Amino acid sequence: MSLKNVRLEVMQFIEKDVASLMEKYLIPIEKIWQPTDFLPNSESDTFFEEIQEIQELAKELPYDFWVVLVGDMITEEALPTYESWLMDVEGVNQVENGGNGWSKWVKHWTGEENRHGDVLNKYLYLSGRVNMKEIEKTTQYLIADGFDIGTDRDPYKNFVYTSFQELATYVSHNRVAKIAKKKGNKRLAKMCQIISGDEMRHHHAYSEFVERIFKVDPSQMMMAFHYMMKQKITMPAHFLRESGGKISTAFEEFSNTAQRIGVYTSKDYVDILQKLIDRWQIDKITNLTQEAEKARDYLMKLPSRMYRLSERMKIPENSYEFKWVTPAVVK
């Protein structure tokens, strides 16, 4: 039997539990928070006063912070790309019999994720500190360009990717929340904090998918984990660009900015790798092929090697001037 057919069988085997996993990790629409819970109510008499408060507090936040918040928002707003990618993964079927369990997971997960870009977009618009048209162009470019995260249609690789990426977005939003809180911006802090909570739930869900695959197809799951970490996890916004029509250094500069203010660093990348190794108990997996054993050895040694590399990395001290953020906010 081909590896593809084995993966399909495993996906079908796990699918029987997807409904219960949705109940465990996703929150019903009527109970979960919505963007309006954190934004001024346009029907309220205090609407304009609240906007004024947002704009006054926004003045206290430095340039690099706005760059990171904009980059995080654009990443969230490129959700159509992520959903279309996941819908094409082996074992996910949205057509037959109204869609299988996996396609229902993807759609409900997308519904939860959609609120993140929505609330951040509205907040940025109200803040008066960013150039929304430039942000909108970047967002459209990112969706139009699509992405290639190196997973092909392989569910094993895709679940490694989502396990990693959801934890990375948790770290980023959580750190942004802490900076906002320190600057006295409680509304923005709560907003980013609750987004980070969603990301952590999603991380646990995808991590459990991987755990279940390890139990029934340990060698190929190990090889998928090895493959993804050897080629390195590509961030979903790696094709980020500003207006002008050319692939630019925007993502690199955004990444440098996030590192400079400590929102997401190369050491965080290694920490996440170590957390996945520990979570999946890579050192205890049994019944591996010889090739998978070698892959395990590589993974176990990888964090210490990457820590050493991260310590030698140097981040530019000067901020790149993005079109997204208005000059008035530069400090």
Q: What distinguishing features does this structure have?
A:
stearoyl-[ACP] desaturase activity; 66% helix; Ribonucleotide Reductase, subunit A; mainly alpha; 13 helices; oxidoreductase; 0% strand; 331 residues; single chain
User: For the record, what CATH class applies?
Assistant: Mainly Alpha
N-to-C order of helices and strands: HHHHHHHHHHHHH
Classify the beta-strand content into a percent band. Answer: under 5%
User: Can you tell me the number of structural domains?
Assistant: 1
CATH superfamily caption: Ribonucleotide Reductase, subunit A
Q: Kindly identify the CATH topology.
A: Ribonucleotide Reductase, subunit A
The largest sheet is: none
Percent helix range: 55-70%
* Gross CATH architecture: Orthogonal Bundle
Binding site for Fe cation 1: 76, 113, 116, 199
Binding site for Fe cation 2: 113, 166, 199, 202
Protein name: Acyl-ACP desaturase
GO biological process, one term: fatty acid biosynthetic process
Can you offer a commentary on this structure?
The longest helix has 31 residues. α6 packs antiparallel against α9. Helices cover 66% and strands 0% of the residues. It is built from 13 helices and no strands. The protein has a single domain, classed as Ribonucleotide Reductase, subunit A (Orthogonal Bundle), CATH 1.10.620. The mean pLDDT is 94. It starts with a helix and ends in a 19-residue tail after the last helix. It is mainly alpha-helical.
